[in-house]
Amino acid sequence: MQSRKSSRPLRQTSVPSMIEPLEKREMLADSSVVAGAKVKSRNIVTDNLSRTVLTVPFTGDINLADVSKIRVFGYALNTLSNSLTAQRKVTVHVINAVVLNVDVTGDGVADKQLMEITTDRLMRKGGQIWFYPGAYTDTASNTNVEHRTFAVKGLTKERFTMASRAFIPTNLNRFTSDIFAGSGSPTGNGTDVPEATVTANLDAFLQKKVVAGTISQARKDAAMTTYNSSAAKARIPVANLRAAVLSLTGTFAEAAITNFLGPNYLIVTFLDPGDASVEVAKTTARDSDGKLRTIFRPEFDGEPFQVLSAWVAHEALHQDNDFKLQEEVIANTFGTFVNMQQAQTDPQYLRAGSRLVNKENEKMLALVNSGRTQFPFPGVLIAPMLKKDQGVFIGGKAVTGGVYTSYSDFLRRNYIARGSVSGNTAGNAILNDYYAKFTGLTPAANMQFSDQIMTDIDNFNNFIGPREAVRVANALKLGLS
């Protein structure tokens, strides 16, 4: 293939508005020219890794000289910024590069050259590719060149941020010493909150959902009417717990409201369960008629009602006295997703620093660092994220059995350690409702609590995407690795 020297200086490609300009570089004429507007990208995602292959066309003959002098950048959201509008430049590491000779005309003679660059993560839309002197040479002139092009296709800023994780805590006060040695050991907030205060807080929280368009004003008014009703007060006498139930208005777990206020329930309250193995709450069915009772440990009486709502959603799934490992893992999973959904309205409660809040924060950290099937969406199975060999709690304490590899692994191992026995259990109407709304799938006939549901949750997450996960990361002060 004959090389063609350009008599024109390299054309400067304008920088998209989302990208802050890098420092100016001297461009060399009479060298191979990168056709930046024609850069193509191909994403590869497997269980173990995520990559983008960038294909850069050249107008002249080149020799690849030094891969280390190819630099690739993208811009991610700065999850540590107060406003979550600032972006930060992120180095996208080059795993491999190769020059390909392509026969475009089909005459058996290579008449075009492409450079394929494989990156260590999925690429950002508008991301920059820099060729520094010594990266390659022009075959005809043996000139070292330096210039830049753009990856014109790729991820949005939120998705690129998620593709650039693992997330690492920068404020250990949001977690507990159970996971991080540098965290404290907060106690539960057991101080009863005056009903007037709870009422005002619930009203303000639901109004924010109205403003955000999550619910209508009519739905908010109906929720407050139910909260203040004598029937609701008789069933759920503690205002803070009643607010937790009604705050589920607008979430995918809204069916829990009618569940607790329905005819099959006796009471929902704070009461000593008399069982040290109960983490937060316990639901039991009366032997005589199957009517249900849910009690929460009194030391959590004063916790934010939003974090209590995660456990309300959890306990609504227990409809009998037979719940094994799979049921507990699934109930926790839906509870964590509810917590993340509530945090979209106002994440301030995640910073309360109480034991229940911080323990649930740990679950959310594990969740945003997980997610296999829809990567870079958050999920519950092992994610092909950066530093995945360090698990979902980077910098966490050493644990028996090695690092927790995913949100699901974290839950399963902890419940097994507490004596939970593996096995499927009978499903119910609440499970069917959560499942249908969350996954968009029709529940199977006689669906049980099983490992398949966790796979489906990882496959079909309709509520918490990259944008919602990044907002939680910001609230928890999780930095990119």
Topology:
Elements: E1 40-45, E2 50-58, E3 62-64, E4 70-77, E5 87-92, E6 94-102, E7 112-119, E8 127-131, E9 136-138, E10 147-151, H1 157-163, E11 167-169, H2 195-212, H3 217-228, H4 230-235, H5 239-246, H6 255-261, E12 265-270, E13 281-285, E14 292-296, H7 305-315, H8 325-345, H9 355-368, H10 407-417, E15 425-426, H11 429-439, E16 448-449, H12 451-459, H13 466-475, E17 478-480
Parallel strand pairs: 12-14
Antiparallel strand pairs: 1-2, 2-7, 3-9, 4-5, 4-8, 6-7, 8-10, 11-17, 13-14, 15-16
Largest beta-sheet details: 4 strands, antiparallel
Q: Cα distance, first to last residue?
A: 44 Å
- The largest beta-sheet arranges its strands as 1-2-7-6
Order of helices and strands: EEEEEEEEEEHEHHHHHEEEHHHHEHEHHE
Helix-strand makeup class: alpha+beta
**Mean residue pLDDT:** 91
Q: Categorize the overall geometry.
A: elongated
Assign a percent range to the helix content.
Answer: 25-40%
The proportion of residues in beta strands is 15-25%
Number of domains: 2
Unreliable spans are: 1-30
Secondary structure: number of strands: 17
| Count of helical regions | 13
Instruction: Give the C-alpha Rg.
Output: 27 Å
